[in-house]
Design a protein that fits this description.
701 residues, alpha+beta, Calcium-transporting ATPase, cytoplasmic transduction domain A, 5 domains, seven-stranded mixed β-sheet, six-stranded antiparallel β-sheet, 21 helices
């Protein structure tokens, strides 16, 4: 298939041999052709040129700008030459039918159809010659050239033109379908605005390209505008629509100093952002690069089809020769067998046309490409088609706890009182813990403030390392901390406190236990649904692996319905557990973690899935799949997309091979014409393309 389909190396850009990684000193583009405005000085596709989505036709070839193949100019002029051939073909058929005297002359008739052939035939002959120079002799171009020339030789001039015409039109339609899929994915992800409003020292603002904005400069984003660059929020607090990045419709509140990412939409009021990454290194740029390059990592099925096509082509050419030669041999030794060379040559040519493996070569990589695009729309980033394939065979999923199935934030889950009212207890802990930056202290302060507590005067306060705080409030000795603080002071407390798996903040007044707050890392709202969905997909082997206390991990596992839980694990311990599952039990394991301290496990597992990795370099680097939305339920969605993609690819393979076998037999037996062969070949390829594209538009939840 001619420059198969914008799929980077998944379709070779015609051949991996013609790929050039960077521009040379002569001003060549990534594709190796002259840089005539399509590409910038670095050899990358120049968005400023306005030709990012519409690169030039470099001498009939595709421009591989930005790592993607863009066939031709993308303009209606592509169809001009096929239109000329079509008009001449129809006119020739009509003149033949009318038996026009001047047209029935052999030389005129032949010349007419040769002229009709040239606009569509010469480009294919050129492609075939270039393929032969790359030692790719048995290509689909060779099949088309042999079939059309053979048709001329046996006097089937209209069919000779039709072979090339319909092949060319089919190619163009397939290119347009694939190009549309490519553009949809790029539009889906590349939501960066083209201009940035940069604030000047005098308070004015200057509009410029985001590429020209330096690190440290301040940009202003008005309500409803997209943030053009990554940066730090300078305002006190602001709301942002993050749906373009995460797929979630719920706005996110970001406070002063928080990270704002390119692609977010400001809500409510204008915001000021201090740029901390250049345009090309923003989180969104990394995600874009990840998705665009994903197809270069081919799935095993895809690689098999590529190898199959290269072996298949010479075999069918040999069979075509056999179809012509064997009957001749039979006719030579059996006078009763009437052998007509032109009839059997015609059958051999039909066989060649039908045998083109276009549908397989096009639709299989396109299927994986569409799967990657559909996953991107759902907030799931696959690093390649091979990981889509790998996820279909996963039978075990292991989760990290903190930040994966839980929020990673402590919240107060209960209060126990002894001698104090709830308000008195909250006033005390608010006053004592408000100066601490510890996550537990912050959680206690937030809870107390949310329940109407007020600061009271603290006369003195002393921190006791690893235990808590000792203070004096209204002349009373106050202790706020963990149970060890009370144990050190010999203060008794209820037995149930020592048995709980929750994190406790206890309070004692004048050396007497007065109450406690229970805190826990809260379970994400969709974590229970994540486990249920995985079980619904037939994945019943689910593990919870955590460095937290065994009792705590067991408690969370029980709440989530996970049967197998292990706590107190270091990163190397988790890696050991995963290795045992893979090597000793022969399981296909997907590990889901936060992509930071779980990097060794993510790398070791069959499929590493990082949660909340949009702004995390570690997640993007170490994981095979990145879930942007921070939702564990997306693991099940990823598996559904992977399985759907595999099913569609198999449908394409079985359908294409099945139809071809039937029509091949019909052609060999003389029941299919060149016209039927062309329609069958192009039709099957287009059906396979459309079947692959439906993945892209399916709504996965």
């Amino acid at each position: 298939m001619k420059h198969n389909n914008h799929l980077n190396e998944a379709a070779d850009c015609s051949s991996e041999d013609i790929r050039i990684d960077r521009a040379d000193s002569a001003g060549k583009c990534d594709c190796g052709h002259d840089n005539d405005g399509c590409c910038d000085s670095a050899g990358k596709c120049s968005e400023a040129s306005g030709k990012h989505d519409d690169c030039h036709d470099h001498g009939g070839s595709s421009c591989c700008c930005g790592g993607h193949c863009h066939s031709g100019s993308g303009k209606s002029s592509q169809f001009a030459l096929p239109a000329v051939s079509f008009v001449l073909l129809i006119a020739g058929i009509v003149l033949n039918h009318l038996q026009a005297p001047w047209f029935t002359q052999p030389v005129v008739n032949l010349l007419w159809f040769v002229i009709a052939f040239l606009p569509v035939g010469l480009p294919v002959i050129k492609e075939g010659w270039e393929a032969a120079l790359r030692k790719d002799v048995f290509s689909e171009f060779t099949l088309m050239i042999v079939a059309s020339i053979g048709a001329f030789c046996i006097g089937e001039y209209p069919e000779a033109v039709a072979v090339m015409l319909f092949y060319t039109v089919g190619e163009m339609l397939q290119h347009k379908a694939v190009d549309r899929a490519t553009r949809n994915i790029e539009k889906l992800l590349d939501v960066r605005p083209e201009r940035a409003s940069v604030l000047q020292p005098d308070g004015s603002s200057v509009e410029m390209s985001p590429k020209e904005v330096a690190i440290g400069e301040t940009i202003e984003v008005k309500p409803g505008e997209r943030v053009p660059l990554d940066g730090e929020l300078l305002d006190g607090e602001a709301m942002f629509d993050t749906s373009a990045l995460t797929g979630e419709s719920m706005p996110r509140t970001i406070v002063r100093g928080g990270e704002v990412l390119a692609g977010m939409i400001a809500s409510g009021t204008p915001v000021k952002v201090k740029v901390n990454r250049p345009y090309g290194e923003s989180a969104l740029s990394r995600i874009l690069a990840l998705v665009k390059d994903a197809s270069s990592r081919k799935a095993p099925t895809e690689m098999f089809i590529r190898r199959f096509a290269r072996v298949y082509t010479p075999i069918v050419m040999l069979l075509a020769v056999i179809i012509v030669a064997v009957p001749a041999i039979v006719g030579a030794f059996s006078p009763s067998f009437h052998y007509v060379f032109s009839d059997w040559l015609y059958r051999g040519l039909v066989f060649l046309v039908i045998s083109c493996p276009c549908a397989l070569v096009v639709s299989v990589p396109l299927g994986y490409f569409a799967g990657i695009g559909a996953a991107s729309r759902a907030g799931i980033l696959f690093k390649g088609g091979n990981y889509l394939d790998a996820l279909t065979s996963v039978d075990t999923v292991a989760f990290d706890k903190t930040g994966t199935l839980t929020t990673g934030r402590f919240d107060v889950t209960g209060i126990e009182l002894s001698g104090l009212t709830e308000r008195e207890l909250l006033d005390i802990v608010l006053s004592v813990e408000s100066r601490s930056t510890h996550p537990i202290a912050k959680a206690v302060v937030a809870y107390a403030q949310g329940h109407g507590a007020e600061m009271v005067k603290v006369t003195s306060m002393k921190e006791i390392s690893g235990r808590g705080v000792e203070a004096v409030i209204d002349g009373k000795d106050i202790l706020v901390g963990n149970l060890r603080l009370l144990q050190d002071r010999g203060i008794g407390f209820p037995d149930n406190l020592a048995a709980t798996s929750a994190t406790l903040v206890v309070c004692a007044v004048n050396n007497k236990y007065s109450g406690a707050l229970s805190l826990a890392d809260t379970i994400k709202s969709d974590s229970p649904d994540a486990i249920e969905r995985l079980k619904g997909l037939g994945i019943n082997e689910i593990h919870l692996l955590s460095g937290d206390k065994k009792e705590v991990v067991a408690d969370y596992a029980a709440k989530l319905g996970i049967d197998k839980a292990s706590g107190g694990l270091l990163p190397e311990d988790k890696a050991g557990r995963i290795e045992a599952l893979i090597k000793n039990e022969g399981r296909k394991v997907a590990f889901v973690g936060d992509g930071m301290n779980d990097a060794p496990v993510l790398a070791l597992s069959d499929v590493g899935i990082a949660m909340g990795g949009l702004g995390s370099d570690a997640a993007v680097e170490s994981a095979d799949v990145v879930i942007q939305t921070d939702q564990p339920s997306k693991v099940a969605t990823a598996i559904v997309i992977a399985r759907t993609t595999r099913a569609v690819v198999r449908e394409n393979i079985i359908g294409a091979i099945g139809v071809k076998v039937i029509v091949l037999l019909a052609g060999a037996l003389g029941y299919a014409s060149l016209w039927g062969a062309v329609f069958a070949d192009v039709g099957v390829a287009l059906l396979a393309v459309l079947n692959s594209l439906r993945i892209l538009y399916k709504n996965f939840k």
